[in-house]
Amino acid sequence: MDSVGMYGLCGCTAKSKMKCDSRWEIPASETAPTSAYSSPARSLGDTGITPLSPSHIVNDADTNVSEQQTFLVVVAIDFGTTSSGYAYSFTKEPECIHVMRRWEGGDPGVSNQKTPTTILLTPERKFHSFGYAARDFYHDLDPNEAKQWLYLEKFKMKLHTTGDLTMDTDLTAANGKKVKALEIFAYALQYFKEQALKELSDQAGSEFENSDVRWVITVPAIWKQPAKQFMRQAAYQAGLASPENAEQLIIALEPEAASIYCRKLRLHQMIELSSKAAVNGYSSGDTVGAGFAQAKEHIRRNRQSRTFLVENVIGEIWSELEEGDKYVVVDSGGGTVDLTVHQIRLPEGHLKELYKATGGPYGSLGVDYEFEKLLCKIFGEDFIEQFKIKRPAAWVDLMIAFESRKRAAAPDRTNPLNITLPFSFIDYYKKFRGHSVEHALRKSNVDFVKWSSQGMLRMSPDAMNALFKPTIDSIIEHLRDLFQKPEVSTVKFLFLVGGFAEAPLLQQAVQAAFGDKCRIIIPQDVGLTILKGAVLFGLDPAVIKVRRSPLTYGVGVLNRYVEGKHPPEKLLVKDGTRWCTDVFDKFISADQSVALGELVKRSYTPAKPSQLVIVINIYSSECDDVSFITDPGVKKCGTLRLDLTGTSGTAVPARREIQTLMQFGDTEIKATAVDIATAKSVKVGIDFLNY
User: Fold this and answer.
1) Which long-range contacts (CB under 8 A, 24 or more apart) does 57-64 make?
2) Cα–Cα distance, 420 to 397 (Å, whole number)
3) Phi-psi region of 61 (alpha: psi -120 to 50; beta: other; left: phi over 0)
4) What angle, rounded to 10 degrees, do the helices at 392-406 and 132-140 form?
5) Tell me: the pLDDT tens digits for 511-564?
6) CA of 324: how far to CAs of 321, 482, 491, 533, 541, in Å?
7) 329 and 488 Cβ atoms separated by less than 8 Å
8) Omega of the bond prior to 392 within 30 degrees of 0, cis?
9) pLDDT tens-digit map of 59-107
10) How many Å is the maximal CA-CA distance in the chain?
11) What is the DSSP string of 86-112?
12) Phi, psi (5° rounding) for residue 518?
């Protein structure tokens, strides 16, 4: 990390700097002689900026943020770890949400309102297909040919798990080849863009332009800022919007989108799991399974229609909530689980985020990993690794077979679940080990998985439930921690949403753990909750009013040196004035409430009045308690360079005021520096990927 402090530079190189500004002296007696510490400001001999007092001016949410653009339609893309989809609504008919047309292909026992998040590139690395089409084409390739093609699935998790995400981060395809993550995400978004525009054009009977569309892309709330920015960059590359027209694209947080949709729920659109009250004729004595079976039947009947009417009213559940009431949204998807606590603000029913989003990689993928671990235990890790490389398409087939059985797991199931092993698995194992799959099962001591003569692994229900256990335990533990926080103690409702929320095992665990604390609600079409909420968010982005800042933001400044308060190695003497370098001047703290559109202002002045190039470096940290830009975990995330040359004719006060503003948007933060005397200004978006 480049850690040059936020100081004005006089425009010369580091080498010539010491010559040109020899007045920066560091008295030998006043530095720690043995310290290997090198101050970024000192090594460059920079002149600096210092706060003008009073510097802490925070103004309220900017009420004049007006919508410059009008769009004909809002299209939301739910880019999921395991499956993805889009939905749209015309701004003239906001009460109708249309879910995308049915996808070709599809699996038995899995509804096709979404498509798998899988992508296939040709051996020349050109986009070939997405979703079922990619999977089926890849599956039909000759095994030797398949090794040349690049097939990727579940790649969204990479953005959550990569600590040092950049524009150059790689993904690994099924054949082991590397490909740029940005390229893959852009291909996927471009595919959705083309599908949606084609469907809109077909429906309208005339060509639909991209400029008519406001796009919304959903991301997990627990993603760090670089991952959110990465998604926006991929969308720009895919042509959904551009940096010049950034407001055409909204990055929505998944639990927020779910929350917005849950407000609209009517009683017939949800299932209540808790023991607190009976809803919709189900008492808590009925099993979860029975309620869900009825709901599934209701969904099956309605599946032919892809248009959902969202009544322009507050749903019955919502009408029970009063000013200040709190509820938790548990968004459990394929890759992550996101927990968000919201509070109602009346009269408009705006949402306020009460507690910083938490969660972790506890999605339904965890169940797949457990299955893979089980296979390694039975057949050997060396074999499974080789099989994945040598027969990548067959491995994909095996995981598809597992997926459909995974969905049949339920707390009260008594009959075994059969998972078909691809022929090439059985064949390759025989070649690899010299004995049969059946022999391996007998020898493995895994007594709850048997071999059936039809070429299937037969798992007892307990064995399948055991695969869910680690992931579900993590979710319950995380929720327990959350419920101990004082802000969360009086929660009225818990909304369980996301694809993994369809799993009866998860529903039962949540009900058992929290059914006596609050009312647990599952929207019926739970896998589409986020998608529909994202459309509603795009139609009315002002519905989310207050968020918690995930990071502390500030700038690096010079302060007057105070003996005993400041560390000696930070002392810098200039023209007889003693300065403390590298001071982190805080704009906003981690976990502080930030209204959408809020402006935070600070005023600074150059430490050297004649300075004409002012460079302001912006820093962020996950810690709240930051004193210096050199503290551990502080990262540079933006630079404002204000060039004031050519303004010498202007009457400039002795203490020139440079006002710095930060505006907190949806997932973007914009910073501006203004020279008050000349009104010259410079803007920058906070950048977490390029520093």
Assistant:
1) 57/601, 57/602, 57/603, 58/598, 58/600, 58/601, 59/598, 59/599, 59/600, 59/601, 60/595, 60/598, 61/545, 61/595, 61/596, 61/597, 61/598, 62/597, 62/598, 62/599, 62/663
2) 9
3) beta
4) 130
5) 999 888 888 888 877 778 889 999 999 998 877 777 888 889 999 998 989 998
6) 8, 18, 10, 22, 21
7) no
8) no
9) 444 444 444 568 999 999 998 888 899 999 999 888 888 888 766 555 5
10) 92
11) EEEEETT-TTEEEEPPPPSS--TTS-T
12) -155, 175
CB 590 within 8 A of CB 549: yes
Output DSSP code: residue 628: B
- Quote the CA–CA distance of 649 and 655 in Å, as a whole number: 16
**Tokens in use for 264?**
């609209």
Give one DSSP letter per residue of 260-311, joined into a string: HHHTT--GGGEEE-SSS--BTTB-TTS-HHHHHHHHHHHHHHHTT--EEE--
275 — phi, psi (to 5°)?
A: -90, 5
Q: How many residues does the chain have?
A: 691
| Burial (Cβ within 10 Å: 0-12, 13-18, ≥19) of residue 675 | buried
**Coil, strand, or helix at residue 326?**
strand
Instruction: Identify whether the C-beta of residue 522 lies closer than 8 Å to the C-beta of residue 273.
Output: yes
What residue ranges of the chain have pLDDT lower than 50? 1-46, 54-67, 108-110, 275-305, 311-313
Sheet with 544-548, strands from edge to edge, namely 270-272, 519-523, 491-497, 326-332, 337-345, 350-360, 544-548, 593-595
Q: pLDDT tens across 466-509, in order?
A: 999 999 999 999 899 888 888 787 888 888 888 888 889 999 99
What predicted TM-score, i.e. pTM, was given to this entire model? Answer: 0.76
CA distances from 56 to 6, 600, 601, 639 (A): 18, 8, 7, 20
Structure tokens at 601: 């202002």
- Provide the token pair at 521: 């609600």
Cα 398 to chain centroid, rounded: 29
Q: Are 591 and 487 in contact (CB under 8 A)?
A: no
At 68, list the tokens. 């410059």
Cα torsion angle, 230, 173, 162, 257, sign: positive
Q: Number of helices and strands (H, E) in the chain? A: 18, 35
For residues 72 and 91, the answer to whether their CB atoms sit within 8 Å is: yes
